[in-house]
Structures are given as C-alpha cells and as structure tokens.
Amino acid sequence: MREGFAAMMAMFPIPDVRTSSIELAGRPAVRVEPEGEAKPAKILYFHGGSFALGSPQTAMGLTASLVVRTGFSAVSLDYRLAPEHPFPAGIDDCVAAYRTLLDEGLAPESIAFAGDSAGGGLTVTTTIAARDAGLPVPGAIVAFSPGLDHTRAGATIETKEGIDPFFTREGMAYTGDMYLGGQDPHQELTAPAVLGNLTGFPPILLQVGTNELLLDDSVRLAQRAREAEVDVILDVTAGVPHVFQSFIGQLDEAEQALDRAALFLTQHLAAA
C-alpha cells in the first residue's frame, strides 16, 4: 500500500524549491525553502496517508506550493505510522517537533500548522495536544480535506459513498483500525470533529470538496470552532475529490484553493 501510494503521489508536479533532509525531535524531516530569501515565518507540514502511508515526499507538491506562494519556509515531518506505531504516536511526534521549533526560538505566532487528509487532522489534534501540554498554540492552521472523526459519524460517510473516487467506508475502516490499534475512537484526539475542545485555537482554514466522504468532518469542526469563538473559514469547493489541491496544473480549483490558503497564511503570519 505504501509503495502504491508513493507511486501515485509521484505523478503530481512539484514547484521549484530548495529541499534538504534534516532531523526534527528525533524524526526525519525535510526542510523546504523558496528559491529566494525566505520570509520570517515557518510552516510545519504534516503529510497525508490515512495515518499508515505517506512521507514528506508524497506531500511535497502541496508543501512546495505553499512555500512558493507565501515565501515562507516549511518543515515537513516524517511522523511515525500505523500499524507499527498506532495512535497517539503520530500526534506525539508532531507535538515534539513543534516543541523543538519553539525551543529553537521561533515565536508560536510565526508558525503555522498545515496538512492534508490525515495530516490535516493532525493540524487540529496536535494543536489540542500542544495546548493541553501547556504550549502556546501556533499562529494559524490550514487543513486540506482533513480526517477528523474516527467514529465515522458524519452523514457524508454514507451520502458520498460511490461518489468519492478515492475512499470507501470499508477502506477507511481498514486503515482506521490500523491507526486505532484497538483503542476507543470516541475520544478527543481521535474524533475532534465530534469531541474536540477548540478553546483558544488560532484561526483555522478548512478546505474540502463536495465529492468527499470526509466532507462532514470539516463541516462539523467548523461548527465546533464557531461555538468556541474561534476564527474559522470553511472553504467548500463543488465537484472536486479528496485533497484536490494536489491536482496542480490539472484542476483550476487546485490553483485557486492554494492561492486562498497562501493568502490566509500570509495574513496571519506576516505581522508576526
């Protein structure tokens, strides 16, 4: 599955950036920088892959697109994957990476969490875990088609079955069980769209397509954000699939969504 996912994601274009392999909080990571001088802010990127697949390289098209559009540098983390390392290993790695950036002197308001799919979910759960550990929250969150509910209680899990070109309920249960490792999905860090306490969160941008089983994950998280008096933008694009932002050069909607995400990041991190 990992080889197939890597081969599929290798087909997507990657804008021109400078990359270098680094270690962050004991995990491999990739530093991604614009070709010119980077502006003083940082994107901490979490790749997708159902918590069991993927790497910084599989999400490089998205990471590089944000770097090129914002002028900020990014670090994409190679967090531990299930089934070898089930919940909460990935969240622990992401919190440790964020803590390291803070320890290196970066101001929290100058750091954004960004991610796609499972990594989009990690932008939210890492923020919850970091806040509850006494760390300051980051300056902004951008989540592309995030997975935010392992209880699979969203209506679109049923209504978009057969419409979503990538996911089925059965397939999501297969990788979801790997991630949970027998643990109860009814808890805040596995189902933040249902149980997440978003008090004190930074501004959030959620981008999702109408052809997604995970559509209601974003819809419900946006509602929880609103109830917690958190700035939130729910950006729903019609007729596009899961993580449609990857289809650079193929879908106009991908380019437009990335432009909106870059504007959001620039607005919230530039002053910092």
Overview of this protein structure:
The protein has 272 residues and is an alpha/beta fold. The protein has one domain: Alpha/Beta hydrolase fold, catalytic domain (Rossmann fold), CATH 3.40.50. 37% of the residues lie in helices and 19% in strands. It has 9 helices and 8 strands. The protein has an 8-stranded mixed sheet, with helices on both faces. Strand 7, helix 8 (215-227) and strand 8 form a beta-alpha-beta unit. Helix 2 (60-70) crosses helix 9. The longest helix is centred in the last third of the chain and has 18 residues, at 252-269. The termini are far apart. The model has no long low-confidence stretch (mean pLDDT 96).
How is the secondary structure organized here?
Layout: H1 2-9, E1 18-24, E2 27-33, E3 39-46, H2 60-70, E4 72-77, H3 89-103, E5 111-116, H4 118-132, E6 140-144, H5 156-159, H6 169-180, H7 192-195, E7 204-209, H8 215-227, E8 232-237, H9 252-269
Assembly type? single chain
Shape: globular
Main beta sheet strand tally, sense and closure? 8 strands, mixed
Taken together, the total number of domains comes to: 1
Which parts are unreliable, with pLDDT below 50 for 5 consecutive residues or more? none
Task: Kindly report how far apart the N and C termini lie.
Answer: 41 Å
CATH fold topology = Rossmann fold
SSE order, one letter for each helix or strand? HEEEHEHEHEHHHEHEH
**How big is the Rg?**
17 Å
What percent of the residues sit in helical stretches (DSSP H or I)? 25-40%
The number of strands is: 8
Quick one: CATH superfamily?
A: Alpha/Beta hydrolase fold, catalytic domain
Main-sheet strand order equals: 1-2-4-3-5-6-7-8
Strand residue percentage: 15-25%
Total number of helices: 9
CATH C-level class: Alpha Beta
Structure classification = alpha/beta
CATH architectural group: 3-Layer(aba) Sandwich
What would the average pLDDT be, to the nearest integer? 96
